[in-house]
Write a structure and sequence with these properties.
15 strands, 11 helices, five-stranded mixed sheet, eight-stranded parallel sheet, alpha/beta, TIM Barrel, 40% helix, Sulfite Reductase Hemoprotein, domain 1, binds iron/sulfur cluster, 2 domains
Amino acid sequence: MKRRASRAIKIGDVTVGGGAPIVVQSMTKTDTRDIRATTDQIRGLEECGCRLVRVAVPDKEAAQALSSIKRGIQIPLIADIHFDYRLALLALEADADGLRLNPGNIRDPEHIKKIVLAAREREIPMRIGVNAGSLPKASKQKSIVDQMVSAALEHIQLFESLDFELIKVSLKAFDVPTTIEANKAIAQKMPYPLHLGITEAGTPKRGVIRSALGIGALLYMGIGDTIRVSLTGDPREEVFAGYEILKSLDLEERGPILISCPSCGRAEVDIIGLAEAVEERLQKMDKPIKVAVMGCVVNGPGEARDADVGIACGKGRGAIFRKGKQVRTVEEKDFLEALMAEVGRVQ
Ligand code: SF4
């Protein structure tokens, strides 16, 4: 797919846009004032491959905590600001690597000007983060999509008038078609990188589906430079889901891909249990490898041959394949260990 050309910005040492690899990011769920808890959560996210992290800054104490949090983490830290422009200034003083502002609740041009000038001086990028749920008051004639696009463009023009172009933009809604249409529209109207997400997407069970559809559809059109899967749950799930979306579209080679059949009445082994056990073992690996776990001879040998490593199971025995060749057959009790041994042999 041809990706939309966007300008590159740097958030800390991470490039977003300009054709750089799509960046998976997340947001902490801890009280930002609790420095220990927030730092620990961010370290957990780093271990999962999260490349940018955002924290809520609801008050002065949270803003001031940023510099201590930054000292304990490796990835760039973005301050999420709503309502009070002074918190943005404090976050900049506390060395935030990026800011997110919501045009729906920081409206006074003089306040925005103060933030922009302080960010410009420090060369800190800002995201104009429009949410369908907190839009500025607009003409009732306009559709939600048009209101979202107008809110973003209005802020972009204000930033540009102050000679500030370290801009990233997001237009998020809970509604997937609204998010897709809004991003398609804004993508043609401005050159800045786009942060994609479905807001308030829900618990992992449903939120991953909504996010995969919304984010995935846009990425498939070549739109999007960084993604955040918003889930009501452990933020590491957000990072895991983000990479699965990228890998599903061949936009990222990080980590293993598991191909497993759903099982059916033909399977004569516990294929679901085996796939779950393999998934758990693969989660701890970084190697970009395709592993197939298949239940019978219908599609089994074909998929197992096409993967880097695969198993096609039959009654009580399974054929193990590596790089297209059957390397051995094993008994059911040895399926997991034999498969993982072959995974270890692939460079
Ligand atoms: S590979 Fe075999 S067991 Fe698995 S779903 Fe297909 S037919 Fe069923």
